[in-house]
Write a structure and sequence with these properties.
Order of helices and strands: HHHHHHHHEEEEEHEHEHEHEHEEHHHH
Helix content: 40-55%
Number of domains: 2
CATH class of the largest domain: Alpha Beta
Strand order of the largest sheet: 7-6-5-8-9-11-10
Strand content: 15-25%
Structural class: alpha/beta
Radius of gyration: 27 Å
CATH topology of the largest domain: Rossmann fold
CATH superfamily of the largest domain: Vaccinia Virus protein VP39
Largest sheet: 7 strands, mixed
Distance between the termini: 36 Å
């Protein structure tokens, strides 16, 4: 049950994000299923205290796991993206994970009843204690094995199908005399498993998938397609299309990545840079190509991302000016003794992947403490600009300004747009003010810099008193983002 619960979150994350709504929905649905299963199982055990029924339930639960996984392979690609990120996880969890957990929940009271019949001298309390001791121990083993072994080494399909087969085999071995039922169950399992695997492989081939695997943190997908009329390779992390690279050009693909050059307005002579979040390592590669003396550190929490970037996005693995750390960005900042001239944070690239510990006042204070004098901090944040009662972007702006009074904000698409877009946060660890209407800026050869005036957000028109500063104690990021979605509809 614990393996299914953990994997359920991973299954839903590509469609609804790894948010508090997804986690809460899965846990709540599983608990609801188990509670009803306990009640029904206790009633059934008292009425029909037979081992054959107990093992029937095990076999049926295994079959249901496989059938519902097959249903999920059809349902989620068709309807997942059309459902709300708030209510979609609840609906999907009920459809895909309720029934098998209901059946598995029936087993505990049934086991207590059967054990008491076998060991009449054992008290009810001791019998229940032994059953729940072993079941909880198994849950601990399942939880640890899912996180430390199964997910890192096997895909979700293999894990789900293996659990289903295992439960079916356990139930059938205890009821070997029921040959007809065994044939029916095995036949159904083979059919549904074949269909599920065929459907999955068909989806992958249609998407021109180059790489598809679950890491410790997320589902990683690399696929080829076109972007702005050019052949390109894309990196998708769960639901987020986090990076892209042209296959026939060294130019940066996504527009927001080009804004990293804003460091030049404050400090052209940068020697040490830190990237928080790797993705396809587009910005680090561009820095290395354009600044022959720079040293770049990257804090990318997922070690598989770096390997994927080396294999599919031409990231150098032997450049002495380039060092990757498989570590959380905030923890890396705390541990490092380095001072950086430039920090670029791209760890929260969409509504669906916003690590709240990288949005708070304490995080920005930590980043400032690791900047050299005249150092620059730039972050890519995704959100919408209208002044609504609840706004993640505006609260995040206020939070940054509380730490970096000398800060600027730019809308990549348009400062007048009401739709979600990339917002570039620029903070300077110094007193130099920039006039983006100056001749020097407007005549800059780089179109990103020369066009900054058109994209700059006028913070003097924003009533920041209406928005809270985000702190480690109070950072309801998922709630704020959910309000963004509600107001956008």
């Amino acid at each position: 049950m614990l393996i299914i619960e953990i994997i359920a979150i991973r299954i839903l994350a590509p469609y609804f994000g790894n948010t508090i709504f997804t986690v809460s929905s899965v846990i709540s649905v599983v608990l609801a299923a188990l509670s009803i299963g306990y009640y029904v199982g206790g009633k059934l055990a008292d009425k029909y205290p037979r081992e054959s029924i107990f093992f029937y339930i095990i076999s049926i639960s295994g079959t249901i796991i496989i059938i519902l996984h097959f249903l999920g392979l059809i349902f989620l690609p068709l309807f997942g993206y059309s459902l709300s990120v708030i209510y979609g996880p609840v609906i999907s969890a009920v459809l895909l994970f309720f029934f098998q957990n209901f059946l598995l929940g029936m087993l505990s009271p049934f086991a207590v009843k059967l054990q008491k019949l076998h060991l009449e001298n054992l008290g009810v309390g001791e019998t229940a204690g032994q059953i729940f001791f072993w079941s909880t121990l198994g849950s601990i083993f399942g939880s640890l094995s899912a996180g430390f072994f199964l997910i890192p080494h096997f895909g979700i399909d293999k894990i789900i199908l293996s659990i289903g087969f295992l439960l079916i085999v356990i139930g059938l071995l205890a009821n070997v005399k029921i040959k007809l039922s065994a044939k029916i169950l095995f036949g159904a399992v083979i059919i549904f498993s074949s269909l599920a695997l065929y459907t999955n492989s068909l989806n992958l081939s249609l998407a021109k998938t180059v790489f598809n695997k679950d890491s410790l943190y997320q589902k990683i997908l690399v696929y080829d397609g076109t972007y702005q009329g050019q052949p390109a390779r894309f990196l998708q992390q769960d639901r987020n299309s986090s990076a892209a690279e042209f296959l026939n050009s060294n130019q940066l693909a996504y527009e927001y990545t080009k804004y990293y050059v804003l460091y030049q307005l404050f400090n052209k002579d940068i020697k040490n840079a830190l990237m928080i979040g790797g993705g396809a390592y587009s910005v680090p590669k561009d820095l290395l190509a354009n600044l022959p003396e720079i040293k770049v550190d990257i804090a990318e929490i997922d070690p598989m991302i770096f390997q994927v970037a080396k294999d599919y996005f031409n990231v150098p693995s032997d450049n002495p000016r380039f060092q990757n750390f498989a570590q959380d960005g905030r923890r890396f900042l705390y541990d490092t003794n380095n001072k950086y001239d430039f920090i670029f944070s791209d760890a929260y690239a969409s509504f669906f992947s916003t690590p709240e510990h990288l949005t708070t006042q304490e995080f920005f204070e930590l980043a400032k403490s690791k900047l050299s004098d005249n150092g620059v901090f730039i972050a890519n944040v995704v959100g919408s600009l209208p002044q609504k009662p609840v706004s993640f972007v505006l609260s995040e702006m206020k939070t940054l300004k509380s730490v970096f009074p000398n800060s600027y904000f730019f809308a990549v698409v348009s400062k007048d747009s009401t739709k979600p877009q990339n917002i570039i946060f620029v903070a300077y660890n110094g007193d130099q003010k920039i006039d983006f209407s100056s001749k020097e800026i407007l005549q800059n050869k780089n179109p990103i810099i020369s066009g900054l005036q058109e994209h700059q957000i006028d913070t003097s028109k924003i009533h920041f008193d209406n928005y809270p500063i985000l702190t480690d104690n109070y950072a309801p990021v998922d709630y704020m983002i959910s309000k963004e979605f509600i107001n956008l509809k």
